[in-house]
């Protein structure tokens, strides 16, 4: 499985490095400026790496409310921060420009990211309006910008959104795999930090023939062993924050406690 080749372990944990609001975002701290964005990202990066996670994914998580077509200033700001941190990144990393797969691919190519996670296929009714995608154009764009080696993690249960059409999750997973050849499929809860339904994870995993499945939200040290029973890895963020609060910085001790559970689980593989 490509995940072991990239991360060096079975069932890798990809930790989110959430960037503070950037220029153009409603919450941007103009007084702190980009230096504040950089320093917050640097502290979280070091805490996550010291805590022992297997990969990092940089995202503009605090660019609320999100766009489905990200502005140029956001991609430029993220590239600037990641470029400054590049020499300090010791593990494989990817990027996520919420919620724009084209911008995510462009950023990954520019900074050397190995993977992206995005809403790449499907049509949804969401808090951000009608959420449409063009997976064929996205796949071709990746090739056009020399991104053929970038792994594509497809989120098929996006947070704050519902798939248009009465389709079972197994059917969505099967046709996504057949038509789009995703490198992995991500299954989420309702919002960032919301626990993913273990039974849905199992149903998606059972429906697929070859594609790894990631638990995308809501993992914590108490449920991670259960989630990894079915999932091939997990993308984690809120559980690593001080007091498990989404808006807070990363607490290295919470990361270490979480990864201790993961490593104990891996002993039985």
Strand order of the largest sheet: 3-2-1-11-10-9-7-4
Radius of gyration: 17 Å
Name the structural class: alpha/beta
Beta fraction: 15-25%
Number of helical stretches of at least 4 residues: 9
Unreliable spans? none
Which word captures the global form? globular
Largest sheet: 8 strands, parallel
The average pLDDT value, as a whole number, equals 95
- The number of distinct β-strands equals 11
Separation, N- and C-terminal Cα atoms:
14 Å
Helix content: 25-40%
Order of helices and strands: HEHEHEHEEEHEEHEHEHEH
Which properties best describe this structure?
3-stranded antiparallel β-sheet; 8-stranded parallel β-sheet; 269 residues; globular; alpha/beta
Walkthrough of the structure:
The structure is a single chain. The protein is an alpha/beta fold. It is 39% helix and 16% strand. The protein has 9 helices and 11 strands. The chain has helices at residues 2-7, 33-51, 72-85, 101-111, 135-144, 169-180, 198-207, 224-230, 252-266, and strands at residues 13-18, 55-59, 93-96, 115-118, 124-126, 129-131, 151-155, 161-163, 184-187, 213-215, 233-236. The strands form 2 sheets. The chain has an 8-stranded parallel sheet. Helix 2 (33-51) packs across helix 3 and helix 3 (72-85) runs parallel beside helix 4 (101-111). The longest helix has 19 residues, at 33-51.
